[in-house]
């Protein structure tokens, strides 16, 4: 296990180095001049040159990259070129909103998807399976932004069940936090719940056809007990994989959801930074997202061996 962890940590480090190069070059390839965005269209060439010198944009690219890596490694994310505020403080103020929203959406998606997948397999060929399949197909077909607008129109404005916008920190008001995040989390987790439902159902159907399940049934175990004990356990590998890989997707997908529900999260910060050519903020946001992806994938790989003892790590069979 320790050898496996060392190998995976090495692979993760290489991935982060390559990702840092892509991030740095990708940001530099964005159209527009950050110095011109800061100084305005009427700025003189001397003023633009001074701003580029202050930001280090007049230095060779490899020098800028080396300084970028050194600052990130030391935990210094720099300052916003637009506001002058610390990037770390800006992220610290907005990241918790997006993380809470994404985690809430994953919980909603996993609980709903596994329950519907289990229901569809237990009542295969009957009306509960048809309802579950129809719900999954509808969730995959409807865009989140349109579903969000419908939810605001009917559930918030029409029935008054949820607030249409705003955010309350968990430490200030736990009840208000739940009330404000529930509807955005439901909207954000809808598509993922549909994917988990279909994968859970397919995985359980395959597991129920195996020899050990037939042996268990031959010993007199009921179908529901076999389904929960063997079918569901095998399907959890698929659920963990999907949930882990989709965490980054939910964070990026939260950009749209945060705009619809006016949540002051990571998404709004990212969009503002892109439109304003705020290089330090864009780089910090993408770096943090990449690190999150790598850590989640590492955790998923480790969880495999915990969920299914048949899986051997370290390349051993």
TrEMBL record:
Secretion signal span: none
A GO MF term: dipeptide transmembrane transporter activity
Any GO CC annotation of this UniProt entry: plasma membrane
Primary location recorded for the protein, binned into one broad class: membrane
Domain spans labelled ABC transmembrane type-1: 95-304
Keywords linked to the UniProt accession: Cell membrane, Membrane, Transmembrane, Transmembrane helix, Transport
UniProt-listed Gene3D superfamilies: MetI-like
InterPro entries on file: BPD_transp_1_N, MetI-like, MetI-like_sf
Subcellular compartments: Cell membrane
Residues that span the membrane, as ranges: 12-30, 99-120, 145-165, 177-197, 235-261, 281-307
Any Pfam family the entry gives: BPD_transp_1_N
Protein family membership: Belongs to the binding-protein-dependent transport system permease family.
UniProt protein name: Peptide/nickel transport system permease protein
Organism from which the protein derives: Promicromonospora sukumoe
